[in-house]
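Retro notes, structure queue

What went well: the backlog is down to a handful. What didn't: a couple of records were mislabeled last round, so from now on we paste the full input next to the output in the thread. Example, using Plastid lipid-associated protein/fibrillin conserved domain-containing protein from Ambrosia artemisiifolia:
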Amino acid sequence: MASSTAFSLASLSPVNTELSVTPIRTQSRTVCDLRLRNCRSKRNVIISASVSFPAQEVSPSQRRPDELAASIFSKVTQTDRGVTLTKEQHLQVAELTSELSKYCIDSPVTCPLIFGEWDVVYCSNPTSPGGGFRSGFGRLIFKTNEMIQVVEAPDIVRNKVSFSALGFLDGQVSLKGKLIVLDEKWIKVVFEPPQLKLGSAEFQFGGESEVQLEITYIDDKLRLGKGSRGSVFVFQRRNPTV
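Corresponding output:
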């Protein structure tokens, strides 16, 4: 909020000097009676000014975790999971996620909050989730509707990307994987070959794949991750606890 400071200068009272001349006649000359009177003006001149200072944005390092999370969501919402963001906006998200990761609990991979259904709401590399479907050419044909990750106890991960092909044909790509804990922050997921459903047709394609992901922050609404190649992911819980 912009702060405003108003101040007034001291009142100024100008002094007017009135000079009156009354002639007095003598034998050969006129003597002037000079009367000098000072009169003070009753008018007061008040000068006031208002100075406005521009609002200063609070730096990420001065924000609470909930404020950082809210800022992250506000920046990535309705951006097609980061696709439409500019380079500068990606850097802003990176700064916020880096600051929020400082509040990460110890050993997040063992935290029960990891389980549940999560929306993938942002990725710094748009082709990381969804593969070719999210490439520049793929997005011309396939419009992503949902991108969901489900983590089930004790070690099952399911990824699902639903889309519309050419604007009229609904489809879905799903993967099932096994979660393997590498250390207190890193996990590895080994996925089976993906399943593709396009209209009424359903078939399997490709082979097995694996990814490694560091959990950099987690709470009941938000999860942050970083891939082995540095890609930043933001997950939002679909059914957060109240």
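Agreed that this is the format going forward. Reviewer comment attached to the example: Residues 104-237 form a domain with the Lipocalin fold (CATH 2.40.128.20).
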